């Protein structure tokens, strides 16, 4: 079967189908042949809250974070740092907006993004705010010039981001989104959470003209400069552990469709 994503030589394509952002190179039956780079997630000064809804954790209800002596600061756009309870059900009454080719949640006065142009940014320092940020980051990959937006505007400081900055294409040369595949969020699972750093496993459905497959990727976010920012893998990839998922079992179902 031929590739369901365009090769770079054949025309524009989404970041999900490009080196460092690879969603799939070929479809074989119902499996995704993903380009996976394993790495150790950066640690946090505080012990993370282990949440029992993801594929990498054991079963059980998600505990609430341990209260801290001081209230976490609000976001740079003054969104309040509210409820610190990690969600085990989908956020209610979610509003969705189309960002490029992917829908993303929005609640600008509560969870974020309080800023939607030119870059979707400024989220609440809460678990739900982090969840909104993670999906909005994923949706940003379907925009033109997405590599530059992710690294320059949304990336957390660190060695991985430095590598990504060094490998950025020439200004204006980034490929636009591809019409060959549509990727939409389908569910989530908190792998860990503190008010300083969180890891959220996003499950997504990738639809092509031939079929629909399920993939998932842990998204690591760090609170930095008043907002949740994407932590890059050491080789400069924003989603270095993108893999196929056999099903949505273990994820909280959540989508805008």
Biggest sheet, in brief?
7 strands, antiparallel
**Head-to-tail CA distance between termini:** 29 Å
Question: Low-confidence spans: pLDDT under 50, at least 5 residues?
Answer: 1-13, 17-70
Number of strands: 11
Number of domains: 1
Shape assignment: globular
Order of helical and strand elements? EEEEEHHHEEEEEE
Radius of gyration (Å): 17 Å
- Give the count of helical stretches: 3
Given helix and strand content, the structural type is alpha+beta
Transmembrane segments: 21-41
Organism: Aquipuribacter hungaricus
Biased composition (Low complexity): 58-76
Protein name: DUF8175 domain-containing protein
Would you kindly provide a written description of the structure presented here, covering whatever features stand out?
The chain is an alpha+beta fold and 257 residues long. It has one domain (8-253). Helix content is 12%, strand content 23%. It is built from 3 helices and 11 strands, in the order E-E-E-E-E-H-H-H-E-E-E-E-E-E. The chain has helices at 127-140, 146-153, 159-166; strands at residues 27-28, 31-32, 49-50, 95-99, 102-106, 182-193, 197-207, 212-224, 227-230, 243-244, 252-253. Strands 3, 6, 7, 8, 9, 10 and 11 form a 7-stranded antiparallel beta sheet that branches. The protein has a two-stranded antiparallel ribbon with strand order 1-2. It has a two-stranded antiparallel sheet with strand order 4-5. The longest helix is centred in the middle third of the chain and has 14 residues, at 127-140.
């Amino acid at each position: 079967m031929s590739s369901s994503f365009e090769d770079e030589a054949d025309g524009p394509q989404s970041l999900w189908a490009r080196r460092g952002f690879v969603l799939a190179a070929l479809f074989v039956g119902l499996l995704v042949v993903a380009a996976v780079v394993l790495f150790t997630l950066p640690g946090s000064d505080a012990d993370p809250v282990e949440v029992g809804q993801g594929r990498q954790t054991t079963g059980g209800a998600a505990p609430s974070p341990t209260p801290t002596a001081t209230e976490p600061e609000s976001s740079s756009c003054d969104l309040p740092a509210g409820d610190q309870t990690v969600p085990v059900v989908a956020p209610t009454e979610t509003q969705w907006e189309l960002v490029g080719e992917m829908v993303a949640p929005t609640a600008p006065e509560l969870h974020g993004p309080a800023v939607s142009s030119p870059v979707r940014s400024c989220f609440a320092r809460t678990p739900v705010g982090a969840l909104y940020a993670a999906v909005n980051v994923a949706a940003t990959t379907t925009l033109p010039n997405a590599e530059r937006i992710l690294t320059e505007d949304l990336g957390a400081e660190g060695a991985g981001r430095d590598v990504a900055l060094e490998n950025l294409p020439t200004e204006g040369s980034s490929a636009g989104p591809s019409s060959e595949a549509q990727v939409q969020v389908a569910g989530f699972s908190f792998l860990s959470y503190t008010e300083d750093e969180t890891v959220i496993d996003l499950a997504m459905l990738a639809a092509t003209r031939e079929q629909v497959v399920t993939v998932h990727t842990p998204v690591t976010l760090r609170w930095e400069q008043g907002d949740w920012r994407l932590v890059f893998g050491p080789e400069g990839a924003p989603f270095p552990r993108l893999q196929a998922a056999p099903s949505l079992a273990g994820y909280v179902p959540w989508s805008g469709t």
